[in-house]
Write a structure and sequence with these properties.
binds alpha-D-psicofuranose; 48% helix; 12% strand; alpha/beta; TIM Barrel; binds manganese (II) ion; three-stranded parallel sheet; 399 residues
Length: 399
């Protein structure tokens, strides 16, 4: 890499902030069970402390997304949580309501034919808007498990209209500078139809809800072989890309570490964003967030690994020579155009990443520095004792 390339990478990285998810620090599992870890976060204070560790070593994760039901016992918690976050030097980020776990939502939340769960879901969404205002969060990030399991079970068109109407009402209560993000996913928990199953459905609903609403792309929420970067390019062109939930997938929504299966796809997504910016001169506001379940990995280490992977792939995308690429595209020089991408992708950007970290007073190797800090051992000991005191089963006593 020459100096010019290094500077290009450094200024690109200066603009990349990544939000960590509170739930990525807690014990998570699959529907077949959980493998517990002594060091896993027990409550929101632990999660914020863990998120602050990630930020301490990576220097680019200043905020943590929250999941309302998993993080707040009730809204009275909010001021003390804000204070604790300030003390730790992080901010609370996207607020994620949860209308997919309650028994009440067996047949859906905002799309349920029964008015009681529908009203309940709307009330929870409105409470979440309030929390977002209190924590000065710009984002209300919505994902619905709504759908049905058998053909004929649901009136799909009725449910589409119910979803749109509810979100319009919720958006009406949001502050002028707040943004609603709408997430799609093809299946799970519903296995026949999902009310927001793909980006087109999310786009139509977001458009109908209004200008404060954008689509969020969870990279794991696509069918095998789907061209995710094309979706990103189309959303960018429509000014409808609001953000990402980063993770990787091999089979379905596996919640694996970003780039662990297909790093070239992540690179291509970043390339579409940076190419759009170069070509249009526009700088769309995109919320980059992680949404992963670190079921068996050390959770903080997995998060640091994810962030470093994202930085590396973003840095590679920043090296694409856009003017040349445009020329090759215009001339239909497909090999040369493809080589523009391959050359950038196969460049070893690690020296530039180290330089960026040096300039920000960070360790050149965030994962190693975190490991050497001994945080995991200390947290595991303290959290294990606290679990015992609280009567929660500790990992080492899990039989
Ligand atoms: C659903 O699979 C999802 O991607 C949504 O973003 C949820 O908020 C999150 O996972 C919960 O882990
Ligand atoms: Mn997600």
């Amino acid at each position: 890499m020459n100096d010019k390339q290094t500077e290009r990478v450094i200024s690109a990285l200066d603009e990349l902030a990544i939000e960590t998810p509170s739930w990525g620090f807690a014990d998570t599992g699959t529907r077949f069970g959980k493998f517990l870890q002594d060091g896993a976060a027990i409550d929101i204070n632990d999660k914020m402390a863990d998120a602050a560790e990630v930020h301490r070593y990576t220097g680019c994760c200043p905020s943590m997304a929250v999941h309302v039901l998993w993080d707040f016992k009730d809204s009275k918690d909010v001021p003390s949580v804000i204070q604790a976050a300030e003390k730790l030097g992080i901010k609370l980020g996207a607020v994620n309501p949860n209308v997919f776990e309650g028994q009440l939502y067996k047949y859906g939340s905002v799309c349920n034919r029964d008015q009681t769960p529908r009203e309940d879901a709307k009330a929870h969404l409105l409470d979440s808007v309030e929390i977002a205002k209190q924590v000065s969060s710009r984002y209300l990030s919505l994902w619905f498990g709504d759908g049905s399991n058998y053909p004929g079970q649901a009136n799909i068109r009725w449910r589409k209209r119910a979803m749109t109407q509810c979100l319009q009402e919720v958006a009406g209560e949001m502050a002028a500078d707040q943004i609603m993000l709408v997430e799609y996913k093809p299946f799970e928990p519903a296995f026949y139809h999902t009310d927001l199953a793909d980006w087109g459905m999310a786009y139509l609903v977001a458009k109908a809800v209004g200008p404060k609403t954008k689509v969020i792309v969870d990279t794991g929420h696509h069918y095998q072989g789907q061209n995710v970067e094309q979706i990103v390019a189309w959303l960018l062109d429509e000014d409808m890309l609001g953000g990402f939930h980063f993770n990787d997938r091999r089979y379905a929504d596996d919640d694996l570490t970003l780039g662990s299966i297909d790093p070239y796809q992540v690179f291509r997504i970043f390339h579409e964003i940076l190419f759009f910016r170069w070509e249009t001169g526009k700088k769309p506001e995109i919320a980059y967030m992680i949404d992963q379940s670190h079921n068996d990995k050390n959770k903080i280490e997995a998060t640091i690994q994810t962030v470093c992977t994202a930085q590396e792939l973003y840095a590679k995308a920043a090296l694409v020579r856009h003017a040349e690429l445009t020329r090759f595209q215009e001339n239909n020089s497909e090999i040369d155009a493809e080589e523009c991408l391959r050359e950038a992708f196969f460049t070893d950007v690690r020296p530039a990443l180290i330089e960026w970290r040096k300039r920000h007073g960070l360790s050149p190797d965030p994962l190693r520095a975190f490991r050497e800090s001994g945080y995991t051992g200390r947290a595991a000991k303290e959290r294990k004792e606290r679990r015992i005191a609280l009567g929660i089963r500790a990992a080492s006593s899990y039989a």
